[in-house]
Amino acid sequence: MAFPISKEAILVFNKDGVIFHSELVKLNVYEELFSDFPKYREEIHQYNRRSVGTPPKMKFMHICGNILKLPDTDEKVAHYMRLSELYLNLKLKQAPLVEGVRDFLQRHIENIKFVCSEAKVEEIEEQLRYSNLREEFKDVYGHPHEKRDILFSIKGRFEEDIIFFGDSLNDWKAAKEAGVQFIGIDASDFSNPLQGRPVHIVGSFDELM
């Protein structure tokens, strides 16, 4: 079902799972990092998939401290953060675009658009440039800023309606807390926690055109 979007609306996009199918890439990398702990493989897998949208540092803190119960948790988390960045730098460029997102961005060329993500700004910029999408966005915002605060900041600059496109409970909560509209994107092959919530959800951007 088409969702009415005015030419004046400010459009804000999460990156992973909304612009790129990069969430699955990240989930797989995070699990590969802990392959030396086969006894906890399933527990790590379940937690990892259940916590889509959670910043990696928080994930690693939970895995190292609560699942593996490793000593010197802070050092271990820093170690896994460095490894994850190394692996992701090699793999993220392979992540395809979410279906219909390029056409959607071009159809709404007159709208002001932003990226609001938990990823580092450098990562966002690199992926957008690699896919020839950087010029579609006025600006990009990411780590260490929280999505709620980013949305508050954008809302404070514009009087027009703001629509945030996200794929996780964290995205939905950030939109609610900031008082902006929200559209859920459910384009992945794994269970989306937005299902069953009072949220407008689409499987791809084709459904919005």
Protein architecture, described:
With 209 residues, the chain is α/β, with parallel strands linked by helices. It folds into two domains: 10-21 and 96-208, Rossmann fold; 24-93. It has eight helices and six strands. The protein has helices at 23-33, 41-50, 56-67, 73-91, 101-107, 121-130, 147-157, 169-178; strands at residues 10-13, 113-120, 139-143, 162-166, 181-185, 200-202. Strands 3-2-1-4-5-6 form a six-stranded parallel sheet. β2, α6 and β3 (139-143) form a beta-alpha-beta unit. α1 crosses α4 (73-91) and α7 (147-157) packs parallel to α8 (169-178). The N and C termini lie close together (8 Å). 34% of the residues are buried. The mean pLDDT is 91.
Tag the structure with descriptive keywords.
single chain, 209 residues, alpha/beta, Rossmann fold, 6-stranded parallel β-sheet, 43% helix, 14% strand
What percent of residues are in strands?
Answer: 5-15%
The CATH topology of the largest domain is Rossmann fold
* Count of the separate structural domains: 2
Major beta sheet summary:
6 strands, parallel
How would you spell out the order of helices and strands? EHHHHHEHEHEHEE
The CATH class of the largest domain turns out to be: Alpha Beta
Shape: globular
Structural class per helix/strand content? alpha/beta
Count of strand segments: 6
Q: Helicity, in percent? A: 40-55%
Q: Compute the CA-based radius of gyration.
A: 17 Å
CATH architecture of the largest domain: 3-Layer(aba) Sandwich
Low-confidence stretches: none
